[in-house]
Amino acid sequence: MSQFAMSALSFSGHRLPFARVEEAGPVLRDTSTLPVSVIIAAKNEARNLPQCLESVRNFGEVLVIDSQSSDATVEIARSFAANVVQFYYRGGWPKKRQWALDNLPLRHDWVLLLDADESVTPELAAEIRHAVNNPAVNGYFIGLQMFFLGRRLRHSGATFYKLCLFRRGMGHFECRTAEQDDSMCDMEVHEHVMVGGNVRRLQHRLVHRNVDSLARYIQKHNEYSNWEAQVCGEGNGTEYNSLPPAPLGSQAQRRRWLRKHFLRWPGSSLAFFVYRYVFCAGFLDGAPGLIYCAFQGIQFFHIKAKLYEREHASPSSAHVVSEFHPESEPHVRN
Which of 5, 58, 142, 238 lies deepest, with the highest CB count within 10 Å? Predict the structure, then answer.
C-alpha cells in the first residue's frame, strides 16, 4: 500500500522528510538469505533495473531510492518485491544515498550500495556472505567490471574500486561542498564513502554496464563536470571530513591528488587522453576504448573550461549558467 506526504510520512515508526514510500508485499525468503540491506539509486532505469534486482534476490532487504521516474522503474521494483522510496532533491546536502543512510530504518547490520546499472555475480554474493561474518572488518572495497557500448573494458584505465559494502552506522559519504543544485545530480557520484575501522578489498567484482546511449553518457558527464568545477573552485566542504589527496593512499586519494596537481596544467586534457589510450592500452579495447578514453579527456577539458568560466565570468553570466538545468535523465557512474 502506498503512502503519500508533501513533507513527511511514517515508515515503520520513523518520519522521512520529503519522501514517499511504497511498501512491497510480504516476501518469503529462505534460510540462505544474505543479511544485507541493499540500497539502489535509480531514475528512469527501467532498462537496467531488472538485471540489478534479479542479482540481489537473495539479499535480506532491497530498497530502490527513486527520483520520480517517468518510465516503468517503480513498477519493475514492485514486481521484484523491493521497497520504493521517492526522494525529492531540494539542492544542498545530503544527496540521495546519504539521505537514505540517515533516514531509512534498515533491517540489517550490513549495507550494500548499488547503482541500477550494476549487478552482483553469484561469486561475489558468496564472497559477501563470508565477508559480513568477519567481526574484525567494517567495510569492503568492491571492484567494477566495466562494460561500455556493449564491450568489456579490460584496459583504458577502467579499473575502479568503491567502498560500497559496510556496517550500518560505520560509513558515510564525504561532503565536499554543500553548495549544490540539481544541475549536479541528486545523488553522490564522485563523493566517496568513508568508513571508520578496518577495511579490506573483495576479490570478485560488480558487473557495471556504463552506458546505454552516448546521449545519456554526455548529459550525465556534463552534470558531473558542473559538480567537479564547483568543488575545485571552492575547496572541500566542512560538514564531513573529505578524503585527503594522497599519492600513496587509496585509489580515490591517488586520483584526487593527480587531479589537484595536474588539472590546471596546459594540455592536461590531451595528456589524460594519451595516458588512458596509450599507456593504459585503451587501444586494445577497440572502438569502445577509443570513445571511452576520448570522453574521459573531454570531461577533463569541461572541468577546466567551467573553472575558467567560474573565475572570469561576470556575476550576471554566472547566474544565468547556474539557472540552466537540462531535463533529467538516469544517473549512472563513469
Answer: 142
